[in-house]
Write a structure and sequence with these properties.
Number of strands of chain A: 11
Radius of gyration of chain A: 13 Å
Largest sheet of chain B: 7 strands, mixed
Helix content of chain B: under 10%
Oligomer: heterodimer
Strand content of chain B: over 45%
Number of helices of chain B: 0
Distance between the termini of chain A: 36 Å
Order of helices and strands of chain A: EEEEEEEEEEE
Radius of gyration of chain B: 14 Å
Largest interface: A-B, 29 and 29 residues
Number of helices of chain A: 0
C-alpha cells in the first residue's frame, strides 16, 4: 500500500506558528488526492479541520489554515493555543481507489 | 442533525469474527455520501479500513481486504463491518465516519462526521 508521510512530532510555543506537512512517499499529489486534515485529542473523536487542501471545515477556528506546498500539503496553526496540543492526521486518496492516513504528528505546545 | 453510533461486542476471542454496526440517525444513509470505517490501535495512528456507498459498492484497505466485509442496510439505516480471523492486531477503537462529497475547484471528499467509536478488545 502507498505510504503517506507526516512529521512524527512537532512543537510550538503558545501564540507561535507551526506548519505540519503531508505527502506521498512515492511521488506528488494529484487532483484526485483529496487531502484533508483531522485533529485527534486525547479522549475525543477525530475532528475534521481542513478539506480540499485549504478549506476549513465548519466551526474550525481561523488560526488553522491549509495549503499546497509543491508535492505536499501543509497545515499551519497561527497563534497556537494550549488546547491545540493534540495529534494531527492527514489522509490522501490513492490512484488505487483507497484512502491512506499518514502516521500522524504529535504537536506539543510549550 | 445526523449522528453516527457504533455498536458491537467489546470483547472478541482470537481467531473468531468481529461484527460491528454503525447506526445513522437524523438523516438517510442513501444519497451521494459514502460511509467509512476507521480504526486506531492502542498507541498507533488512524487506519482506514474501507468504505461503502448506499448501493453497496465497497472499497477496502488492501492490507485488510482478505478479512474484511462492509455492508449496508438502507432499511435500517445501518452500515456493518465484519472482520474475520481476528488477532491482537485487530484490537482497536473502531470509528465509522461519513465520507462526504464537496466541491473545491472541482470534486473533493472528506470525512466530515464521525461516531464516538467503539472499543474492541481481543482475548
Amino acid at each position: 500500500q502507498i505510504g503517506v508521510t507526516q512529521e512524527p512530532s512537532s512543537s510550538v510555543s503558545p501564540g507561535g506558528t507551526v506548519t505540519l506537512t503531508c505527502g506521498f512517499y512515492s511521488g506528488p499529489l494529484s487532483d484526485k488526492s483529496f487531502p484533508s486534515w483531522y485533529q485527534l485529542c486525547p479522549g475525543q473523536t477525530p475532528r475534521p479541520l481542513i478539506y480540499g487542501a485549504s478549506v476549513r471545515s465548519s466551526g474550525v477556528p481561523g488560526r488553522f489554515s491549509g495549503a499546497t506546498l509543491g508535492d505536499k500539503v501543509a497545515l499551519t496553526i497561527t497563534g497556537a493555543q494550549p488546547e491545540d496540543e493534540c495529534d494531527y492526521y492527514c489522509v490522501l486518496y490513492t490512484n488505487g481507489g483507497d484512502w491512506v492516513f499518514g502516521g500522524g504528528t504529535r504537536l506539543t505546545v510549550l | 442533525q445526523v449522528q453516527l453510533q457504533e455498536s458491537g461486542p467489546g470483547l472478541v476471542k482470537a481467531s473468531e469474527t468481529l461484527s460491528l454496526t454503525c447506526s445513522v440517525s437524523g438523516g438517510s444513509i442513501s444519497g451521494p455520501d459514502w460511509w467509512t470505517w476507521v480504526r486506531q490501535s492502542p498507541g498507533k495512528g488512524l487506519e482506514w479500513i474501507g468504505e461503502i456507498s448506499h448501493s453497496g459498492t465497497a472499497n477496502y484497505n488492501p492490507s485488510l481486504k482478505s478479512r474484511v466485509v462492509i455492508s449496508v442496510d438502507t432499511s435500517r439505516n445501518q452500515v456493518s463491518l465484519v472482520v474475520t480471523s481476528v488477532t491482537a492486531a485487530d484490537m482497536a477503537l473502531y470509528y465509522c465516519a461519513r465520507d462526504r462529497k464537496v466541491y473545491v475547484d472541482g470534486e473533493s471528499w472528506y470525512f466530515d462526521l464521525w461516531g464516538r467509536g467503539t472499543l474492541v478488545t481481543v482475548s
